[in-house]
Amino acid sequence: MTARSWRDQLVGKQAAFDGFVRTLRARAYLGKKDAPGAMTDLNLVLGTRPNDADALSLRGIAFTSMKQYDKALDDLGKAIAQKPTIERYFARAGVYEAKGDVDKATDDYRSATQLNPANVFDIAAQNQSKLKIQQLSKRTPCGSSGRGDKDDTCL
User: Is the dihedral of CA 71, 80, 62, 50 positive or negative?
Assistant: First the structure.
């Protein structure tokens, strides 16, 4: 039995597990770059549990992949307000970066580096956040900060 058929057999069978299984399946869809498939499950979960932080954060990631940045920021902000995680800060930083708001992106990348990882997704997001901070620091000029010469960069 494949993992997909196992999850499909569980969806809708036990109400207590349905939200968890749909959220897990949505993460698998996102891993396959199938945002519409993920949105189907996430919208069903959020229809019954509108404040589910895991579903909100994954839907924010799905919105990001569809370049619906305002919706992504809304969902990710709600998820972070409930429970800040490295993955959520990293995802929101990516949205800010895509919108050209380097200061907010940098703040969220920094926040992602200051939390303790809770799972493998957090570990990956934390490592990527550290790299992103380095990349952004190379692109952000210091200006008149008084540090070094005019070609210095800082955050």
Answer: negative
Q: Between the CA of residue 48 and those of 31, 62, 89, 137, what are the distances in Å?
A: 24, 19, 25, 42
Determine contact, residues 25/41, Cβ cutoff 8 Å. yes
Give pLDDT, residue 111. Answer: 97
Tell me which long-range contacts 25-32 makes (C-beta under 8 A, separation of at least 24): 26/55, 26/58, 26/59, 26/62, 27/58, 28/3, 28/4, 30/58, 30/61, 30/62, 30/65
Q: Are 22 and 37 in contact (CB under 8 A)?
A: no
- Per-residue pLDDT band at 137 (split at 50, 70, 90): confident
